[in-house]
Amino acid sequence: MNLLKVRVLMRLTIALCGVFRLHGADNSPLSREALEETIHQYILNHPEVVADAMTRFQVLQQKAQIERTNKAIQSHESELYHDSSSPAAGGDHNPIVIVEFFDYRCSFCKRADSIVMKLTDNPNVRVIFKEFPILSAESLTASQAALAAGIQGAYLKYHRRVMDEASPLTRDKLLDIAAQLGLNVKKFDQDMSSPEVSAAIERTRRRARATEAASSA
After folding, report:
1. In this predicted model, what pLDDT tens digit does every residue of 17-70 receive, in sequence order?
2. Which of 1, 29, 99, 154 is 20 to 30 A from 73 (CA-CA)?
3. What class does CATH assign to 77-210?
4. Domain spans of the chain?
5. Is 42 exposed, middle or buried (0-12, 13-18, 19+ CB in 10 A)?
């Protein structure tokens, strides 16, 4: 039984204690065993109560998570929206702002990238890219490479190429992509390991934790 079901059943049991009489016919207190058997039989006879309770519990959890996330975003609004080290597409004053935390080895991120790229063409939308490498060493190397490309003004071109890349994101492969895009490969290689790039990634990690950004999958 998973943790969610345990929590739901615990809350349901507590609630049912208030439904059933805690005394027998002679007004003597019901034993623990008798009370547990009464609740057990009620649940067996009305299994929909458990399903309803689990659904309600999940809805409340999701609502609480959304509220926590919204408060965290408001508390860190400046860092999320106005960090000059985070690459962005679209004007500073565009009315719709999307902040994307992503990992280059995340399959969902790869599938969603074509949609995100279309959004960058919308004149009302600004997309802020948060390099959030959490899945592997390749993820970190790819993020370092993308930010290094951004130093040479080629972040979006490089980002798209890496998102489309199906082969392992080795350092040699990332250097090869930089060369294909006409970047200064020597500078690119140096910038990948620069304190500036490392600091940008670490700031994103801190903000992801602070705003409870969902993990990549």
Report:
1. 554 455 444 555 666 677 677 777 777 787 777 777 777 777 777 776 667 666
2. 154
3. alpha beta
4. 3-16+29-75, 77-210
5. middle
